[in-house]
């Protein structure tokens, strides 16, 4: 059955790009509500923004959604990954500004808060999007593909000049809590040169060595180093799950990304929905449910750093 959070969950922090204080509250919602954001700092007009693929205003640095009135929320990918990875289908997310708090740069604080509060079952079955035929997006920089699979799985490849990251590739079956155990604590990362460039443009004003992995050549500048030797590719997979959650339903398919990012994953969803023969809506039975993220997770499975 569909789920929502059992009670409201509030988290405080700063926005990664704005540097402004940010408070977010995840509230329970009814069945078939989906995930919506509500800007509580705006008093007049339409303050609700749907977390859905065709509300995305593509950006290379984060995922930003905008409603018809121009009201926007950005850097939503980590909380969306946490909701998808914990099996939460419906929520109203209130936020007092334009950006989700970055917290420690991963999805783990959101995951811990969700699992500590617990989920409530709702009286409607889960419906998922089953991929029936491959769809693909290619650019000069890389490519992304969705193809048929029994559950949700992912393969991701990255390639960076800095030796601290280099070339990394990882494949995971995301069923049965794999996201929580393997991906949720992996932090956003960047090169020191990128930080300097973003600061010069008035971006990443809330970024610190405590909420991002910063590298320079073969050195990791963030205190404590890496949480995983392949933390960078794990974080890319985390981001991809959050961006795929904007399909609006759980996905049954295999995602592959080669040097892909937020914009490419969103373009891939556009391509999927542009091809109605490439997918179908299915009602989830118990056997299929076991192959989705967010099943049978226990709080003690969250990595200790969270």
From TrEMBL:
Q: What is its EC number?
A: 3.5.1.108
- The enzyme class is hydrolase
Keywords recorded for this protein, A-Z: Acyltransferase, Hydrolase, Lipid A biosynthesis, Lipid biosynthesis, Lipid metabolism, Metal-binding, Transferase, Zinc
What GO terms in the biological process aspect are recorded for it? Answer: lipid A biosynthetic process
Q: What GO molecular function terms would the record report?
A: acyltransferase activity; metal ion binding; UDP-3-O-acyl-N-acetylglucosamine deacetylase activity
Q: Where is it found, in Gene Ontology cellular component terms? A: membrane
| Superkingdom per UniProt | Bacteria
Reaction(s) catalyzed by this protein?
a UDP-3-O-[(3R)-3-hydroxyacyl]-N-acetyl-alpha-D-glucosamine + H2O = a UDP-3-O-[(3R)-3-hydroxyacyl]-alpha-D-glucosamine + acetate
Q: Which residues form the active site?
A: 262 (proton donor)
Pathway in which this enzyme or protein is active: Glycolipid biosynthesis; lipid IV(A) biosynthesis; lipid IV(A) from (3R)-3-hydroxytetradecanoyl-[acyl-carrier-protein] and UDP-N-acetyl-alpha-D-glucosamine: step 2/6
A Pfam short name: LpxC
Cofactor(s) annotated in UniProt: Zn(2+)
Which of this chain's residues are annotated to bind Zn(2+)? 78, 235, 239
Q: Which InterPro entries match?
A: Ribosomal_Su5_D2-typ_SF, UDP-acyl_GlcNac_deAcase, UDP-acyl_GlcNac_deAcase_C, UDP-acyl_N-AcGlcN_deAcase_N
The record's comment on protein family reads:
Belongs to the LpxC family.
Q: Which HAMAP family match?
A: LpxC (MF_00388)
What does it do? Catalyzes the hydrolysis of UDP-3-O-myristoyl-N-acetylglucosamine to form UDP-3-O-myristoylglucosamine and acetate, the committed step in lipid A biosynthesis.
Q: What is the name of the protein in this document?
A: UDP-3-O-acyl-N-acetylglucosamine deacetylase
Species assigned in the record: Roseivivax halodurans JCM 10272
């Amino acid at each position: 059955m569909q789920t929502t959070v059992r009670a409201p969950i509030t988290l405080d922090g700063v926005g990664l790009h704005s540097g402004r204080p940010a408070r977010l509250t995840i509230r329970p919602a009814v069945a078939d509500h989906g995930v919506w954001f509500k800007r509580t700092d705006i008093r007049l007009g339409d303050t609700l923004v749907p977390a859905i693929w065709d509300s995305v205003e593509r950006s290379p640095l984060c995922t930003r959604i905008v409603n018809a009135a121009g009201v926007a929320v950005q850097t939503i990918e980590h909380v969306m990954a946490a909701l998808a990875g914990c099996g939460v289908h419906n929520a109203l997310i209130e936020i007092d500004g334009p950006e989700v708090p970055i917290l420690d740069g991963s999805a783990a604080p959101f995951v811990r808060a969700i699992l500590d509060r617990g989920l409530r079952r709702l009286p409607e079955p889960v419906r998922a999007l089953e991929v029936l035929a491959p769809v693909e997006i290619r650019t000069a920089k890389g490519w992304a593909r969705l193809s048929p699979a029994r559950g949700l799985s992912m393969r991701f490849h990255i390639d960076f000049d800095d030796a601290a990251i280099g070339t990394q590739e990882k494949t995971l079956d995301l069923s049965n809590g794999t996201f929580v155990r393997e991906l949720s604590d992996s932090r956003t990362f960047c090169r020191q040169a990128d930080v300097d460039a973003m600061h010069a443009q008035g971006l990443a004003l809330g970024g610190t060595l405590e909420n991002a992995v910063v590298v320079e050549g073969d050195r990791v500048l963030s205190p404590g180093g890496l949480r995983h030797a392949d933390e960078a590719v794990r974080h890319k997979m985390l981001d991809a799950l959050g961006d795929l959650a904007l399909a609006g339903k759980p996905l049954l398919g295999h995602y592959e990304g080669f040097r892909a990012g937020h914009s490419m994953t969103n373009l891939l969803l556009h391509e999927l929905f542009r091809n109605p023969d490439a997918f179908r809506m299915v009602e989830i039975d118990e056997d299929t449910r076991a192959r989705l993220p967010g099943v049978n997770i226990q709080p003690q499975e969250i990595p200790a750093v969270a």
